[in-house]
Structures are given as structure tokens and as C-alpha cells.
TrEMBL record:
Transmembrane segments: none annotated. It comes from Panacagrimonas perspica. Its EC number is 1.17.99.6. It is an enzyme of class 1 (oxidoreductase). This is Epoxyqueuosine reductase.
Amino acid sequence: MTSLSADALRTLAVSIREWARELGFSDAGISRPELGDDLEHLRNWIASGHHGSMTYMARDPEMRASPQALRAGTLSVISVRLPYWPKAHDADEVLQNGELAYLSRYALGRDYHRVMRARLLKLARRIEREIGPLGHRVFADSAPILEKAVARNAGLGWIGKHTLLIQRAQDSVRSADGAPGGGSWFFLGELFVDVPLEADVREPVADGCGRCSACIRACPTGAIVAPYKVDARRCISYLTIEHHGPIPEEFRVPMGNRIFGCDDCQLACPWNRESGATAESDFTPRHGLDAARLLELWNWDEAEWLQRTEGMPLRRLDHARWLRNLAIALGNAPRSAEVVESLRKHVDHPDAAVRDHVEWALRRQAP
């Protein structure tokens, strides 16, 4: 670690925020690697079984609250935000059209892990050019870190009742087209460094949720079981992405046409009403997936699915789970002979979960 004076460290912290914005991040903050109270919250969440089948969440929770355990020698954490809300077909219109597929808006373009990681590495290199060798590690939703708590501590927002980080528009940098940049439509990333940077001097962002419960009311499956507490086992994002095997029948009708993730809690949040679309071309929707017909996607064979989803967050799935999710949406779609005929093409699919969901969808389509 390079030895720097207090004045130099203070100047460096200011520069880091400027460099982060030059790299396209909407904001950056610095915090100390201390997350004591958040560990207890995590333990209680796991003890309640709200992590579902995500067993990795229960492995060594202490590490998630200890940046030093993730990278020895960490003295400061640099948190960054990158807005992703794309210029896409109106989300509510897609959700209300049972013939279309709804994909969470973060997943329509390039895989954000790649974008975030590349830019954070550039930020690390820029710091090295200024001070010399830098011990560091980059995180972009890629390791067991409580990134929302870290970002909160860095003054980037507060954790809302839907458990996502929110920032007021007046506290945020405006997007390239001049639109306010508040709300919750952004990715988070972290850079752990072995330099004792001056922590962000901003006051902690006050919880702006107040008495509002719009996100809780909006959740189609009742996954927000209490303010600031989500039961992943009921969450459509978890069910369509993380969960393997059959999706419980009680959630299939409420899923509607949501085939990859769910944005309902964020769409309902008043703080997102003034959010502007990102200027990041990497997050521009690909292949018309912001308003694609269910039957079009259903007819992609595995080779076409692999080709079209290359480099996208959709690769969190395999083709079988893609079909499983689509089968539910087709079961919820307006009844038609075309849907029934298309579903029957996969009644003998080798994956048991696909067969189960196709049979369910055919029953739903029956007159």
C-alpha cells in the first residue's frame, strides 16, 4: 500500500468520484468496511428460510458482512451506481398484453456483470496511475458481499421496503439527456482497496419510504412479507431465474406473462416516476425482447436461444427453464388454437419440469 498524507487521501477521494463519473457511473461513494448490524439482519432472513433454495446465501454469512475476509487488507470500499432503465417499449403495456413476454428491464441488453467489471477495473487502473501499486478487488454482483448495505453506508441511497436501494432524484447526477437519475433503476458495483480513503462525508440518506406501501401492494405473489423483508420463495424474480424444477402452482397464475424476473415493485415505487432512461448503449434492448410475442420466443430451439442470448443476463437460465417460464405465460395467455398447437410441440420434452408446465398450460387453455 502506498503511504499518503491525510491531505493527499482527501484529494484522492474527490478525484475518485470524478473519475468514476468520467467512466459513466452516475455516482460513487466511499465507506469503511464495517457492516455489523446488517449481518444480524441477514442471519434472521436465513433463519426464516426466506432464501429458498439459494443455499449459497447461508454459507458463511459472516463473510458477507466482512469485506476484509473477501480481500485481505481492505481499508476502504468504493461503491458505484450505473443506471440501466432502457429506452424500451412501455413496461405496463407489455404486462397488460397477454400475448407478449415481459422480461425484467435490466436483462434486455448486455450482461451488466461485464460492463460493471470492465469499468471498475479501469477505475482501479486510473487510481494506480495516480498513486502507484494498488491492492484491490473488483465486485459486480460476483461475490458474497452485502452491496446494498455498503452502498447505503457510502451515501448512495437508502434501502427501501422492497429491499432495493433508492436514491432521491435531487441527490443524483442527471443522465446524459438531462433526465433526473433518482429512483432504483441502477446496478451497484464495488472496488475494495487497501488505501485508507476518507469516507464519504455525506450524511446517511434518510429513509424516504415513510408510510408508502406501494411496492408491497404491487407484488403479484405477496413476496414482500413485511416492510424491508422479502421471502424469495414467493418472488417471481427468484422463481423464474434462481429456482430449478417445477414452479409451485399457486404462483403460476399471478406470474402472468413475466418470463424472466419481475419489476412490479419498482414500477409502483413513486421515487421511480422521474427516473430517466439510461444513455448506456450496452443496455439497449436486443432482438425486440422488450415486447416480443410469447409464441415467437417459444419457437426458439436451443441453438437459436443460445445464439440470441449470448452475452446477456438471460444466460442465467438454460433453455429448459426458459421453456418452463414461457409455458406458464402461454397458459395465462388468451385462449387460442395457435397457443395450444404450439404447446403440444413440447408435451414430450425430455425435461420433466417443462412437461409438467406444458400440461398445466394446456389445461389452462382448455375451453
